[in-house]
Write a structure and sequence with these properties.
Layout (H helix, E strand, L loop, with lengths): L1 H20 L5 H32 L2 H21 L5 H32 L26 H15 L1
Helix pairs in contact: 2-3, 3-4
């Protein structure tokens, strides 16, 4: 019985709040509020999903993910902002989204190229019976103590 009383009080409070808010709400706002999720589910989500599937097969995985994220962001941004913003504001916002996508994609490509160019050659492992250290360099630390100390000092300077 207590649940019914609490439920009735909740429904009454909700109806009272709705009656206070109703004069403030315009018909265009209700249309936008109810139409937005419908347009998203019927038009935007299938369109972005279909383009994302095509991109997954046509582009490298890194670019496909970035472009799919840009498409999803653009679709939601256009859906939300179109009724509220002027065309110029929406175009500027979409331009910012795609600049971020391009910068992230090109930055990743640039970093990948930089990392592969600066990567040292892999050390050759001569096996455990050659007297080398466990790191696979084939050089014992006791053979070149000054060189290792110098490298450690350079590494410490680069970290600070």
């Amino acid at each position: 019985m207590t649940r019914w009383v609490i439920g009735a009080i909740g429904v009454a409070c909700g109806l009272w709040g709705a009656s206070l808010a109703l004069p403030l709400v315009s018909w265009s706002f209700v249309t936008w509020l109810l139409g937005g999720p419908i347009v998203h589910d019927v038009l935007v989500a299938p369109l972005v999903g279909g383009i994302g599937l095509l991109l997954a097969q046509a582009c490298p995985p890194h670019w496909a993910r970035l472009i799919a994220g840009g498409l999803a962001t653009s679709g939601i941004l256009a859906l939300i902002a179109a009724p509220l913003a002027n065309g110029t504001g929406l175009l500027v916002a979409l331009g910012v989204v795609w600049l971020v996508v391009a910068a992230a994609g090109l930055g990743r490509v640039g970093l990948g190229r930089k990392n592969s160019a600066n990567r040292p050659e892999p050390a050759q492992h001569h096996g455990s019976d050659d007297g080398g250290d466990r790191c696979g360099s084939g050089v014992e630390h006791s053979e070149h103590p000054d060189r290792h100390a110098e490298q450690d000092g350079q590494n410490q300077q680069g970290l600070s």
